[in-house]
């Protein structure tokens, strides 16, 4: 049954949470520093941006492992294994696979090669920013929890091959990327992005995690006329995302303003926002997914909870026949307060999470 209103997570649980930060697609200089800090470079990175490149990168990584490491990182591609991800820190959610601090520098470079191949430049920078920011959080968090780039995990479900279906999972605190491939098609749904702090400096460069996803959403809500805003804004209260970890197979109701009522300028604003989320996958896959989003634009809904002025905490949601996107500021929650400095986000593909319809 569709879920209508985003529920609030219990305050006691949210006090245990804090997020890593990922720079949005518009960040440039800061992301290079973040990337090199998060995962050491790999030799011969294949940047062709295709599912075949991800297969090559995954086999490159597997070839660098010893027998015990391979046994640990490889697992059957079952529903239970696919669903074993979370935005919680290590101590609060048990993960499987290989943790980054168990890898050599060359093996970490192999992980970087996987991420470079499966994601766009913007998607890779998002991952790098999240893991780097988790180290920033580690230095400031007043909690007995492990944060930082070493506390992220890689796991491979199924057999990487040119035929059949297989998945690479990479994630940890406030990050979960599920890269699934079948032949020449792939998806990264579901993917969880988190951000805290929302702006930070590392290596002399300043990053703004999820900045594009924030600014472009406010541009869209601000670009609607009064009747459209009344249709879009459903509540002044801000809530947590609905379809996060543990919510596989569920759907959410279409609510808010329908894009069929949009002017050309408003449709451009919506498309720009959709591109921030959908464009995290490698460019070959992204082109097809963005084309689907364009075809479905008239059937797309945009819903908003909270103030419409940038700088205030908000929740927003985009739903279409193929996609669900949610964004939520965490108000006063996490390791060191929250509000606009702490963000949760989820990207899902209806009927195609974990490549169900590839």
UniProtKB/TrEMBL annotation:
Q: Which UniProt keywords apply?
A: Signal
* Leader sequence segment: 1-24
- The protein's superkingdom reads Bacteria
* PANTHER family recorded: DUF3500 DOMAIN-CONTAINING PROTEIN
What is the protein name for this chain? DUF3500 domain-containing protein
């Amino acid at each position: 049954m569709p879920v209508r209103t985003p529920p609030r997570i219990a305050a006691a649980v949210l006090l245990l949470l804090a997020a890593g930060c990922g720079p949005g697609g518009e960040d440039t200089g800061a992301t290079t520093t973040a990337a090199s800090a998060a995962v050491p470079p790999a030799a011969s990175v294949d940047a062709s941006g295709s599912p075949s490149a991800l297969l090559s990168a995954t086999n490159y990584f597997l070839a660098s492992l010893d027998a015990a490491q391979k046994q640990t990182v490889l697992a059957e591609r079952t529903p239970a294994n696919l669903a074993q991800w979370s935005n919680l820190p290590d101590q609060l959610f048990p993960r499987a696979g290989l943790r980054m601090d168990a890898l050599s520098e060359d093996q970490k470079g192999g992980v970087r090669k996987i991420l470079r191949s499966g994601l766009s430049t913007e998607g890779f920078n998002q991952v790098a920013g999240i893991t780097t920011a988790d180290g920033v959080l580690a230095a400031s968090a007043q909690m007995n929890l492990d944060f930082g780039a070493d506390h992220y995990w890689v796991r491979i479900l199924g057999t990487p091959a040119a035929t059949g279906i297989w998945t690479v999972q990479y994630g940890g605190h406030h990050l979960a990327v599920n890269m699934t491939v079948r032949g020449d098609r792939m998806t990264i749904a579901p993917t969880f992005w988190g951000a805290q702090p929302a702006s930070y400096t590392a290596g002399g460069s300043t990053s703004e995690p999820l900045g594009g996803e924030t600014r472009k959403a406010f541009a869209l809500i601000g670009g609607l006329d009064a009747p459209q805003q009344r249709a879009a804004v459903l509540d002044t209260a801000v809530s947590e995302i609905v379809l996060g970890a543990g919510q596989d197979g569920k759907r959410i109701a279409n609510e808010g303003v329908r894009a069929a009522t949009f002017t050309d300028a408003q449709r451009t604003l919506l498309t720009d926002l959709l591109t921030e989320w959908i464009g995290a996958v490698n460019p070959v896959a992204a082109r097809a997914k963005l084309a689907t989003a364009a075809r479905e634009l008239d059937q797309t809904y945009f819903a908003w909870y909270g103030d419409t002025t940038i700088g205030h905490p908000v929740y927003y949601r985009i739903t279409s026949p193929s996609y669900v996107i949610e964004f939520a500021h965490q108000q006063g929650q996490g390791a060191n307060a929250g509000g606009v400095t702490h963000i949760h986000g989820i990207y899902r593909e209806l009927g195609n999470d974990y490549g169900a319809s590839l």
